[in-house]
Design a protein that fits this description.
341 residues; alpha/beta; Four Helix Bundle (Hemerythrin (Met), subunit A); Rossmann fold; seven-stranded mixed sheet; four-stranded mixed sheet
Length: 341
């Protein structure tokens, strides 16, 4: 059985998602700089998963650090936090876990105690995430009916989390309840998380999945072949506006046009009450090679101007409900996110 990320005491092991589905290879990090590079380079991705990785990167720096002076130890660890915080700007879970680790770093205990507490906290964040995802699944399963065909975008499954998943967690929970669910997975250009990761995950669980290109979504909706849409999130603003993988906004507009319920599944750590709306969310711009190449093969001419925003904003009015571990926010455009915080 595969795993997304694991703490190994003096190293961090993570499934290299760049190589899926062709190769199931685990990538070992022995320093926080290697963890930071793994996050930036998409060895590991998905908002909850990169938050877990950051926590483990901080713990890894702590256990490997030879500084004996407590003040110097804390100073160096806070620099580690800054390094990891610069890896991906959009996903709020990254900063949520870093701040959680910072509270321990800034406590008044000695070096050895700090090392033990940071290691324990990183492992706890991983374990809690799986529990949270199962709760999201239970809260969301009631929105899926027996026989539903559910469209999803990007990958919000076990590979994007500590395990089980958010959007795919809802689908998994519905299947575990005995419902027959089929999934339409959008390929998710330019990084192909839908075709490479979501389709792979669902096949592992023997959940029926059909892969389509992103620009086929409207066709399938108009044909009446999509009953629900469910996606994950990287940051949800106070008013319910949601940042998720580029293309999500397009699917939300199409779903609204065709009167198809559109759900967002995410943990409380993805909710950001300090960001008033989607306009205030920083959108990460990634390298042009992700657009110009597919798996090493050039598909665009040299010299063409390329833009590659990694996320877009789905306005709250396009979202039927936000599903969290603490409850469901129905019609978030009317309520924002306060009701579950």
């Amino acid at each position: 059985m595969y795993y997304t990320i694991r703490w190994d005491g003096d190293s961090v092991s993570m499934l290299d998602q760049r190589l899926l589905p062709a190769h199931e290879v685990y990538h070992t990090c022995t320093s926080h700089l290697e963890v930071a590079a793994a996050i930036t380079d998409m060895v590991i991705r998905g908002a909850p998963a990169i938050g877990i990785a950051a926590a483990m990167g901080i713990a890894l720096a702590a256990v490997r650090m030879t500084v004996s002076n407590a003040d110097e130890f804390r100073k160096e660890l806070l620099q580690v936090c800054d390094t990891l915080g610069k890896t991906r700007p959009t996903a709020v879970n990254l900063f949520w876990t870093i701040n959680r680790m910072k509270k321990i770093i800034e406590s008044g205990t000695g070096v050895q105690d700090l090392k033990a507490r940071l290691e324990k906290e990183a492992v706890a964040i991983l374990e809690e995430d799986v529990t949270i995802n199962r709760a999201i699944g239970r809260n969301g399963a009631r929105y899926l009916a027996d026989g539903d065909v559910v469209m999803t975008h990007c990958n919000a499954g076990a590979l994007a989390t500590g395990g089980y998943g958010t959007a795919l967690g809802v689908i998994r929970a519905a299947v575990e309840d005995g419902k027959k669910i089929q999934v339409i997975a959008c390929e998710t250009r330019p990084y192909l998380q839908g075709s490479r990761l979501t389709a792979w995950e669902l096949l592992q669980d023997r959940i029926p999945v059909t892969l389509i290109t992103d620009n086929m979504a409207g066709y399938f909706m108009r044909q009446g072949l999509v009953k629900k849409v469910i996606v994950g999130a990287d940051r949800i603003a106070a008013n319910g506006d949601t940042a998720n993988k580029i293309g999500t906004y397009t699917h939300s507009v199409l779903a609204k046009e065709h009167r198809i319920p559109f759900f967002v599944a995410a943990p409380i750590s993805t909710l950001d009450p300090n960001t008033p709306n989607g306009d205030a969310i920083v959108i990460e711009e990634r390298g042009i090679d992700e657009v110009a190449y597919i798996m090493g093969t050039q598909i665009a001419p040299e010299g063409v101007f390329i833009k590659n925003p990694a996320f877009d904003i789905t306005p709250a009015q396009n979202i039927s409900a936000i599903i969290t571990e603490k409850g469901v926010i129905e019609s978030p455009r009317d309520k924002g996110i306060k009701s579950v915080l």
